[in-house]
Amino acid sequence: MIRRALLAAVGSLLLLTLAPAARSQTFTPQSSSRLAVSFTTERVGSGRVLVYGEVRNGTNQSCERVVVGVEGLDENGRTVSRGRAYVFGVVPSRGSSSFEVRMSSPGSERRFRVEIESFQFVSSGN
């Protein structure tokens, strides 16, 4: 009985000691609504498309690890080709950075859609 009480006390003490290390963190979803994309497409030989452009950052924070996704759409709006690439370097606050996506093409694309798939604001603390 004393042994159980002692084990319970030691277990409680361990929990209290480790509790600060297991603090909860708040995650705030990031919206790309202030990041704008402009692009140009160019056919390169047979079966290849080059999509290049820039991402403009309208926020007061720099962004990094920006990934753009490109979809080639046919006359019915169906996706017939797809590509993805990182934006070069950091997109500075109120600035822009360029990107380039080279992708295979069946040749049936009538238009392209380019969207920001993911990004991360540069943390100012670390």
Could you explain how this protein is built, in words?
The chain has 126 residues and is mainly β. It has a domain at 35-121: Immunoglobulin-like, CATH 2.60.40.10. The chain is built from one helix and six strands. A three-stranded antiparallel beta sheet has the order 1-2-5, with no helix packed on it. A hairpin with a 5-residue loop joins strand 3 (63-73) and strand 4. The radius of gyration is 24 Å and the shape is extended. The mean pLDDT is 83.
Structural class: mainly beta
Order of helices and strands: HEEEEEE
Beta-strand segment tally: 6
Q: Biggest sheet: strands, sense, closure?
A: 3 strands, antiparallel
Question: What's the CATH H-level superfamily name of the domain at 35-121?
Answer: Immunoglobulins
Strand order, main sheet: write it out.
Answer: 1-2-5
The fraction of residues in strands falls at over 45%
Task: Write down the overall mean pLDDT.
Answer: 83
Poorly predicted segments? none
**Euclidean distance between termini CA atoms:** 50 Å
CATH topology heading of the domain at 35-121: Immunoglobulin-like
Number of helical segments?
1
The level of helicity is 10-25%
If classified by CATH, what would the architecture of the domain at 35-121 be? Answer: Sandwich
Shape: extended
- What is the CATH C level class of the domain at 35-121, in words? Mainly Beta
Rg, Cα atoms, Å = 24 Å
Which helices and strands occur, and which strands form pairs?
Elements: H1 2-18, E1 35-43, E2 48-57, E3 63-73, E4 79-86, E5 96-104, E6 111-121
Antiparallel strand pairs: 1-2, 2-5, 3-4, 3-6
